[in-house]
Amino acid sequence: xxxxxxLEAHLTESVSLSALAELxxxxxxxxxxxxxxxxxLPPHAYVVQQRVQLATRRIASGESLARVALATGFADQSxxxxxxxRIVGVPPGRYARAVGASVSHDEVxxxxxxxxxxxxxxxxLPTPTAHLMSDSYVxxxxxxxxxxxxxxxxxxxxxxxxxxxxxxxxxxxxxxCGVGAQTVKLARRSPGALITAVDRSPASLAEAERRxxxxxxxxxxxxxxxxxxxxxGRASFDHLFLCFVLEHLSDPAAALTTLLRLLRPGGSxxxxxxxxxxxxxxxxxxxxxxxxxxxxxxxxDGGGDAQIGRRLYPLLSDTGLAGxxxxxxxxxxxxxxxxxxxxxxxxxxxxxxxxVRERVLASTRMEPARFDAGIRALERAAAPDGxxxxxxxxAVG
Length: 397
Description:
It is built from 16 helices and 10 strands. It is an alpha/beta fold. The strands form 2 sheets. Strands 3, 4, 5, 6, 7, 8, 9 and 10 form an 8-stranded mixed β-sheet that branches. Strands 1-2 form a two-stranded antiparallel sheet. β6, α11 and β7 form a beta-alpha-beta unit. α1 packs across α2, α4 packs across α6 and α8 crosses α14. It starts with a helix and ends with a strand.
């Protein structure tokens, strides 16, 4: 409304509650209630949140913390630091290092170091090179995966995310954001939440950042980070979100234990995983089932579990997380849904199986002719008289 627009237009200025109430013609107490009802926060808290969002962008661009504090309406650097840590989950200096920006009070200059551009001021700053997952990642980070995961996210957004929304002002850590397919959905469904998205791959993070920017979303911060030694303090986030991450880890229980330390009391955890053992199709085909089984075995050899969906309840419960609830989310596709047959059956699931062809053949699990016949059989399930179904599992605790 008018009050929110006025505050955003005068974000770095000191606007009193009485002046704002006079502007909109409401009693101050009624204005607070109305503002909170619309945006989930009282006016002052909303201003602080917006200032911190502005600060993240200026810090990432390389501005000194002192300059950022004054430019975003905070009294001084300590004032900025206090609110920044509370909302983002880490101090601004650590955040700057995580995104590769300098934290000096002096002028920032760009120099070359080993072929990489690094922001420095008077001393060497480490570039963020740690990986989110040290385990073998079966999909691989390439264009094929980008297209597949994008198609999957677009086709399944309602199925997977319809009941996921975070309150305004809350802080959310998305672990393993990849190319941002899920990130865009999360940020769009929770525009007032502050989302920190982490991944191991600089290329994927660059693509994710491009997508978020193209969608006009400004509530996401990207950080290249190590899942098992995250650059965040204890109790830094209100909510944790993981989608298609645990299946790639050799020790998902240890990963969950590490991540739960970042969760504030009363916070929530959302985990979404698939289960390749849940795929059924018509016409049935032995080669297709063998191709899927080879994909599952290949991931198991790398330390992952392509059938982890069925394990979510005991995995989360064993960490001590209370109130864990798991719901199956089945994708059912027949001739009445040709668009979904193309997007999910053919371009997501079948493409995922086909994408490991060379590795399956190198493992001697299947002969080329049988594997190729299995892929044709899966594509056949996308025909007008074919049927395909697959189950995802969503856990919340």
